[in-house]
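ugh finaly. both done.
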Amino acid sequence: MTVPVHGLPLVLDVGMDVYPVPPALKGPRGYRVSSCVDSETGQLVALRGVWSIDAASQLVGKTLLVPESQLPEGFALHDVERLVGREVCDASRGPLGTIEEVMQGVANDVWVVRGPLGEVLVPVVPEMVLSVDEGAAIQVDLPVGLVEGE
């Protein structure tokens, strides 16, 4: 059973390459996901080359890293380390400020943005987040009423 950390979503899928950290001194350093079933608490994952309980027990407590190129589309919306400090710009209001905190919710995350319009809580949903391109301000389109004073 794998569980997501740091509020990240479940991301493993069949065919992904995973690399346990810390790596084993001997034997395989990476594996390929051969099956994956989501559950309420995480994902039940089978890895090619891990055929015994003994081999599986060697992976208990390790973090599984996935190459960035294999992460699912939209993953950047949940990567707290890459989000905090990023500028946010609204389609009609202009610059909102910077993300100072990411609150993880059951239905969706919420970005706490502080700037010239005060504190703005931005729900992280596809209808409102337009783009999260590296090196540019995050583009959002917030409905009327989410910014104080409207």
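ok and the 2nd:
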Amino acid sequence: MSPQVNLVPIAPVEISQILSLVREFYALENMVLTEAVAKSYGALLEQPEWGRLFWIQFDGAIAGYGAVTFFYSFEYHGRSAIIDELYLSADFRGQGIGGSALAQLEHFCRQQGVACLNLVVAAQNDAAQKLYAKHGFETLKRQLCIKWLI
């Protein structure tokens, strides 16, 4: 039987609750949650045209969260999105919840007119890589390059 997974939009007033899970995610990924990064979650909640944050609920309990942000790309045929973060608390992993949440995020993006869905996964995160490949994501032979402007 398939798990009862629902995506529920996160409201701006729930910023402290989401940041609690973000801290867990950042610790797991060995990333630093700075004040500037924390503020960016609130900014996204206030600007839905930039993307959305969702609670991932499993049988009514908050299992994690997902973040989708939008952009435009000629290469990716117009309006595109990135699953910027997909996080499940430890107790909810390995039960099919991530796959269900991923499918629902894809459905949401299709409803938003997204032509191409992207994501970034850590090279050492084998479990996530397997999940994403199972759901049709392919690894491009490209290198992500960034330059901080702030």
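summary for the 2nd one i guess: The chain is about 35% helix and 25% strand.
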